[in-house]
Specification:
Distance between the termini: 19 Å
Strand content: under 5%
Helix content: 55-70%
Number of helices: 18
Radius of gyration: 21 Å
């Protein structure tokens, strides 16, 4: 736990010296640009090394080692074709065994960390606080518990900028690429498109009716889900449970947005997009607990809070209120991280104790 807390503090301190909102002058490299490159390089290196060199860390670490072996032996696996191709390519060079397994974990760690940081640098209005939320919200640490899913989540976060710019072709291509590793990401194509629309009253009424159908026609929706994911039916993930922690976070963020709607949401298309996705995540957690692994589905939506929360906080016009809500948010997410780390020794998470093959 000391390692995780220490690296979080170190990364947040390094992020303090990054300014992603500077104006870049052609044929000139400013002191701030140099600082940005050094600090982002340091942040990336630390996040990558801790994730890439882990050993038996993450609840599905052993399961992925088995999948690597099955792919090498030409046995049937449920993983997507893109993932299988990458595994086969590495195994073609290094064979099956510990070395190829370590390289595969490192490759996906590299991609996950890269796309998370690239998305934050490109989209966040406050780089420091977005990095803080990436760490304390558990997104980075959870990426060590599901290789494919968090790699794809990071790509979806990166591709989001194209949806905001309404550049639908590159957005669609990035999501299709991500779907080669985890097809659940295809959900974001209609959802992100809907979040870019200007909602009218009848749209809201339609959304309310749709929520009602989730309560009445659960069996119908489940049949559709299991057409794509038949192995989830009656599995340990098909338990009908929802995430009360995520409900609480979504509600708190929604309240913050409503309190300062006029300053940070009303005339800001990007923030309205993020706010609608946060609302969509809340609807999923409340009305759709019949979806297996509901938290992971919801993360495609509420991961935007690493952009939304900082964007709202920095636009609070009253300085005392801005400090008050920033401190409250910081304390709340710091407490959440501690709670998360305390639970991480559980076999369903297994992030602690941390072990690395670097140290034998």
């Amino acid at each position: 736990m000391i390692l995780y807390i220490g690296m979080t503090v170190g990364i947040v301190l390094a992020a303090y010296f990054v300014n992603n909102r500077i104006t870049v002058q052609p044929n000139m490299v400013s002191r701030q640009q140099v600082s940005n490159r050094i600090m982002i390089g340091a942040i990336f290196t630390l996040l990558f090394v801790v994730s890439a060199t882990r050993f038996q860390v993450g609840n599905d670490y052993g399961e992925y080692v088995k999948i690597f072996g099955y792919i090498y032996s030409d046995k049937h696996v449920s993983t997507e074709i893109g993932f299988n191709i990458v595994v086969r390519a590495v195994q073609a060079v290094y064979g099956a065994g510990d070395l190829s397994n370590r390289i595969l974990f490192a490759l996906f760690s590299f991609g996950t960390v890269f796309f998370f940081l690239k998305a934050i640098y490109d989209q966040s209005e406050w780089f420091l606080y977005s990095v803080f939320l990436l760490m304390t919200g558990g997104y980075y640490f959870s990426s060590m518990t599901s290789v494919r899913y968090y790699f794809v989540l990071a790509i979806a976060l990166y591709a989001m900028k194209y949806a905001l710019q309404k550049k639908w072709i590159p957005f669609f291509l990035w999501i299709c690429f991500a779907a080669l590793f985890h097809k659940s990401v295809l959900l974001v194509i209609p959802v992100y498109w809907l979040a870019t629309r200007k909602w009218k009253k009848w749209h809201i009424l339609l959304a309310v009716l749709l929520c009602g159908t989730c309560l009445v026609f659960q069996d119908f929706y489940r049949r559709i889900i299991f057409l794509f994911y038949p192995f989830y039916e009656n599995s340990v993930f098909d338990n009908g449970e929802t995430s009360f922690a995520n409900i609480a976070k979504c509600v708190a963020v929604l309240v913050l947005c409503l309190l300062f709607y006029r300053y940070s949401i009303q005339d800001h298309a990007e923030n309205r997009f993020y706010c609608l996705l946060n609302l969509g995540a809340l609807i999923l957690y409340v009305f759709c607990p019949f979806i297996p692994e509901i938290s992971r589905v919801g993360y495609y939506l509420n991961v935007v809070n690493i952009f939304l929360i900082p964007a709202v906080l920095i636009k609070i016009p009253n300085k005392r209120q801005r400090i008050f809500f920033t401190v409250c948010t910081t304390v709340a997410f710091s407490a959440y991280l501690l709670f998360f780390l305390v639970k991480s020794t559980d076999i369903s998470i297994r992030l602690l104790p941390y072990q690395s093959w670097l140290f034998g």
